[in-house]
């Protein structure tokens, strides 16, 4: 029997994972590990909806604003760092909370990633040439044809993710989705996955309103301060890529904001596709009551130590 427990709070962007994670951390008197890969970067607080100062004070968080956008940080490094932190925390607590919507980063912690081949320089050069000559759309076409399942969940605006998956497929002649799907089952802790769900229209409305709030809080100024780093992988993401096009004069501001909303909704759709395939997630409805939360605690207590 595994006597340590990791409660993983998952769900699409904007659905309220931070609040639930804090409520659970307070109930179990424990700490929170973030697996939201965008919230690692301290310069991107507004555009990634990082927990506020008040929220961070309500429960200890790890891997929030711990890096600069100028630092390279791979999913493999995160897996190693997160497991090290978990081992430290399990010396103090029987239960720890994991939270975030970065699907592969959660997978890295709860299951582990298979050993994938290192980047092939020849393939990388070829992909860079395709990007330069034919644009990111061509890379998207290639991945969609090679591995439609992974294309359905990947952040296909991030050319680095496209490079990596296509490169691995070319090297192994195997779909990337198949390579990453095999669990190593090497974790010595019990994983309890908790999700939040809501009607699609309600989720999309929350996402749209959250983007408006980000703009009110100063997302435009935050993005302007990061414009000099726009070529870095960390900034090649929703909320920033669109505003860089506004700064470049390609788009009007209203259109850029509408594209942030549209791309955020698209990302949430990919997250939902990913989570729907899992049969081990216990769901709470958005706007849960104290009675619902008490029922969740009862469920978790029943799962602990299984």
TrEMBL record:
Pfam families xrefs: IPPT (PF01715)
The enzyme's E.C. designation: 2.5.1.75
Record key words, sorted: ATP-binding, Magnesium, Nucleotide-binding, Transferase, tRNA processing
GO molecular function: ATP binding; tRNA dimethylallyltransferase activity
Region of interest: Interaction with substrate tRNA: 36-39
Site positions (Interaction with substrate tRNA): 102
Subunit description: Monomer.
Protein family: Belongs to the IPP transferase family.
Protein name, per record: tRNA dimethylallyltransferase
Source organism of this protein record: Chryseobacterium glaciei
């Amino acid at each position: 029997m595994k006597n340590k427990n990791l409660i993983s709070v998952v769900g699409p962007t904007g659905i309220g994972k931070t609040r639930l994670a804090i409520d659970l951390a307070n109930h179990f008197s424990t700490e929170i590990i973030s697996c939201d890969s965008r919230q690692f970067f301290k310069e991107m607080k507004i555009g990634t909806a990082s927990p506020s100062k008040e929220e961070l004070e309500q429960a200890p968080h790890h891997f929030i604003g711990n890096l600069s956008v100028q630092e390279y940080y791979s999913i493999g490094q995160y897996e190693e760092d997160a497991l090290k932190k978990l081992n430290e925390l399990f010396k103090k607590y029987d239960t720890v909370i994991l939270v975030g919507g970065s699907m592969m980063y959660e997978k890295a912690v709860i299951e582990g990633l298979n050993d994938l081949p290192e980047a092939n320089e020849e393939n990388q050069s070829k992909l860079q040439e395709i990007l330069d000559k034919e644009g990111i759309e061509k890379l998207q076409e290639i991945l969609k044809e090679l591995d439609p399942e992974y294309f359905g969940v990947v952040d296909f605006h991030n050319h680095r993710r496209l490079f990596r998956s296509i490169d691995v497929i070319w090297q192994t002649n195997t779909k990337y989705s198949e390579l990453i799907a095999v669990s190593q089952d090497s974790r010595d802790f019990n994983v309890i996955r908790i999700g939040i769900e809501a009607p699609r229209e309600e989720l999309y409305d929350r996402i749209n309103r959250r983007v408006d709030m980000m703009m009110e809080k100063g997302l435009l100024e935050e993005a302007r301060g990061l414009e000099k780093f726009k070529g870095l992988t960390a900034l090649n993401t929703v909320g920033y890529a669109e505003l860089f096009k506004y700064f470049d004069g390609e788009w009007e501001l209203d259109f850029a904001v509408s594209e942030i909303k549209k791309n955020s909704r698209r990302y949430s759709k990919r997250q939902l596709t990913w989570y729907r395939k899992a049969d081990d997630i216990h769901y709470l409805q958005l706007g849960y009551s104290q009675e619902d939360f008490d029922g969740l605690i009862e469920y978790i207590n029943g799962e602990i130590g299984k």
